[in-house]
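In response to a reviewer's request, we include the raw inputs and outputs for one of the modeled complexes. The two entities were modeled together in a single run.
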Amino acid sequence: MDSRAQVSIEVALVAGIAILVAVSLVNLNFERLNLAREVGEGGEAKMVATLLATSINTVHANGRGFELTLSQDKLNFTELTDVDKGTGIILPIIIDNANRKVIVGRNMSRTGHTGQWNVSVSIVPNNVVREDPDGYPELTIRNNGTNVIIYADSSKVRVLP
Amino acid sequence: MRCRKAQVGIEFIILVGALLVMVIAVFPYILKTNELNKALSAARDGATFGAAMRGVGYKSGSVEAPPGKIKIKSVTLERLGKCGDLECYRFKIVIMMPSYYSSNSSYVRSVRGTIRNQAMRFVYYAFYGDYPSKSVIYRVNTSYYSFNATTRIEYY
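The model returned the following structure tokens for the whole complex.
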């Protein structure tokens, strides 16, 4: 009789039971990683809203003729909207004049949600308007003395009255 | 001629065999305890995630969600007795938030709902490997247990 084979079977049984218990915890740990990432990207999306709100406030506060442009390296919509590699922002970004808010929506499909979750940041002016970026670089924000104008495509930024 | 390796092997077999018998004897208990621990861990993860996202200011649907310091103080399990063939347990989630929220009852109700729901969704995920198709989930049944959740607010 080969004693080595006897030992192997018993050790395999004990190890098998241990593996069963360990495997049951694997999906929990992977999901924990996803959660940390979701919260981090949620923070990034809010930073986008904060950046836009701060820019609008700055242009409003500096008066007629002041303008600034948010360049691609500050707000890159291709990267921001990518669910897997980016932040998962859902366009358009909403600027709500009535409630004086910049609202950014996020795709929450990674945590099983079908709808979007929104985050908002307050702004000071309630006279923001959008115009197509003809003659101005995209995401230029300008104060013409009457309104704060944001030059962006309607698929990227939407202004509510 | 006696083989010395076989002698050692028999002693080892006895030892491992005894260990095996002990493991098999307690295996159902290990499975049940493992299920409880797994559920509690998942509920903590879900509640913390819900609190973090609401704390940042996120909300599904409308955006009447002021950001603030929302924290999970504790998530504990309370045994409720038998529900049919399963044992019923309830997660008791204690949420901490600033006292100035106490006047905004709709916001407080909304935060409680989000955190409770996120906890239950993660419990569901832990046992079924996918998120539930329903957006709101009140109960999760497993092999041995049936879980639901309740929340309590503490202001600071």
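As requested, we also summarize the result in words. The two ends of chain A are 88 Å apart (CA to CA). The helical segments of chain A are 3-23, 26-62, 77-81.
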